[in-house]
Amino acid sequence: MGEEAIVRTMGLGKSFGSTVALRDVDLTIGRGEVFGYLGPNGAGKTTTLRLLLGMLRPTTGRASVLGLDAWRDAVAVHRRVGYLPGEPALYGKLSGRQHVAYFGHLRGAANDRRALSLADRLDLDLDRPAHELSKGNRQKLAVVLALMSGPELLVLDEPTSGLDPIVQQEFYALLREQTDTGGSVLLSSHVLGEVQRVADRIGVVRSGRLIAVERMADLREKSLHHVGARFADDVNAAEFAAVPGVRDLAVTGRVMTCSAPQAALDGLLKRITRHPVVDLDCAEAELEETFLAYYGTGEHHAA
Ligand SMILES: Nc1ncnc2c1ncn2[C@@H]1O[C@H](COP(=O)(O)OP(=O)(O)OP(=O)(O)O)[C@@H](O)[C@H]1O
């Protein structure tokens, strides 16, 4: 993460009547960083993004974006931030090209060449009216509109929904170009799979609270492995349970299965080799499974 904070929230909270959508969130995103903001539906992700864009007024705390107050200086923030909403508002009768002209005018920074090049890379026809576009093509147009002015910060709400895998690859390449040139990205999603390839850090929000912030590299180190061993004789569960980090342990007679983070593998193997081994199996789980094991259930987890 760069030294400079592009986003900083302090005690940020938002209530709608008696519904507390977000409470006491302290979050910092650095220059050149891709931050994945993860949480289940209704967790408070969109509320956070709307607070950062000055579309909602905080109930508690404050948010600064590019050194500006997100609420008070919302107009100035909007000029420098590209926003892709979860449900992009497009004008049915206007073509892609007309959207580009209109949004360019609103931002005071028309950049038709960049818009054309983005549309070309995403394989989007800018001449068709929005109401004729499929969901995926509408999403592509929204991506073009968010990126065309070369914003310093990109705020993306579930951006790859509706995009096919090849277009997703191109989209991730665009995000890397954004950070290579010193820009930052805040990417919300309800699944780790959507952000794991591009995020430098992830934050996990649940029931309005930011419950964990973690570097992707650290999450990968925690990556779970499925371990199974068959022994020549019966074994006792207790000795494997004693290895720190071992989860989902099951021992029936001569067979032991469990999950273990990378860091626990050495200790586990040493316990296993105390016994005559007939067969051994060890496979790394999908990162999503590791993520769910740490953050998937319950209300509060330590980072
Ligand atoms: N304008 C509003 N009025 C009342 N309640 C709201 C409003 N906006 C959001 N909420 C509530 O705040 C909570 C957080 O909603 P939010 O949309 O931020 O969640 P989310 O994580 O973005 O979920 P999703 O992925 O479903 O959009 C929910 O309980 C939601 O019902």
Automatic annotation (TrEMBL):
What membrane topology was assigned to this protein in its record? Peripheral membrane protein
Q: Which intervals hold domain ABC transporter?
A: 7-232
This protein's GO CC annotations = plasma membrane
Reply yes or no: does the keyword Nucleotide-binding apply.
yes
InterPro entries documented for this protein: AAA+_ATPase, ABC_transporter-like_ATP-bd, ABC_transporter-like_CS, ABC_transporter_ATP-binding, P-loop_NTPase
- Its main localization is membrane
Q: Which SMART domains match?
A: AAA
Q: Which keywords does the record carry?
A: Antibiotic resistance, ATP-binding, Nucleotide-binding, Transport
Q: Which GO terms describe its molecular function?
A: ATP binding; ATP hydrolysis activity
Q: State any GO BP term from the record.
A: response to antibiotic
Query: In which family does this protein belong, per the annotation?
Result: Belongs to the ABC transporter superfamily.
Name of the molecule in the record:
ABC transporter related
Which organism is this entry from? Answer: Nakamurella multipartita (strain ATCC 700099 / DSM 44233 / CIP 104796 / JCM 9543 / NBRC 105858 / Y-104)
Lineage, highest ranks first:
Bacteria, Bacillati, Actinomycetota, Actinomycetes, Nakamurellales
